Amino acid sequence: MAKAKGGLGKGFGALLGESLMAAEEESGGVSTLPMTLVEPNREQPRKRFSPETMQELTRSIEMHGVVTPITVRKTENGYYQIIAGERRWRAARSAGLTEIPALVIEADDKTVMELALIENLQREDLNPIEEAQGYHSLMEEYGLTQEQVAERVGRSRPAVANALRLLSLPDEAQELLADGTLSAGHARAVLAIKDEALRTHDVLEKMAGMSVRQAEKYAKSLQKEPEPQSEPDQPAEFQPDYTAALAERLEHTLGRRVRIEQGKSSGTVSLAFYGDDDLERLVAALETLSV
Fold this sequence. Notes:
7 strands; alpha/beta; Conserved hypothetical protein from pyrococcus furiosus pfu- 392566-001, ParB domain; chromosome partition; ParB/Sulfiredoxin_sf; two-stranded antiparallel ribbon
């Protein structure tokens, strides 16, 4: 399993309790199920599966089998619904397997949604729109508040709030965000354009070719009244903003605002925090580093 994102401390054990983990250790907890009795969860937050990575996983399963069991629950119709591991199930089916190892647990609909969200977030498999839609489902269908969602999935409340804001983007922007053409940082720059009529296809394409900082400046410039020009504007030469790109990488990893200021011989890195508890967690994490 890929390394979890920073700050994402919740997992299956936190939701289901240590008794489940203990039972799994004692008995193995894993069954071998016929592929024909396993079905995906239609409410699975992840909707897109990369063909390239699916082919790689299929080849791996053809050679080594399914190393990590999927997690399922038994439904009233006798089938087993996937909670975590739909990629493995799809790849196993493509590889021609007739059986698959599975951990069978008991879980209600809300817990299934939480577990599916957590598994995908910890594997970094969800795109920003799928992540936002998952949070929205937990709030709309199960009545959780933003604070409760943040607690369940191990995120800060501002991170959940910022993710939910992405759902107010125009459909085209959401598509570009879902397929990776725009990053979450670019999306926030689009949201900064208050006049929705200015969020055009051309504007989105220009932003996709910029760093996040450049996109933010561009968004601000769109909302200013143009000054009279005696001569046509000459297009400025595009210069990559490497410092901004580094800050964007840190923001994605840490789930918080990052600012990097660079001088001639030194600079500073500033990290945002959200309340006293978040500050203590941040300081504790920094104390473990050695540079």
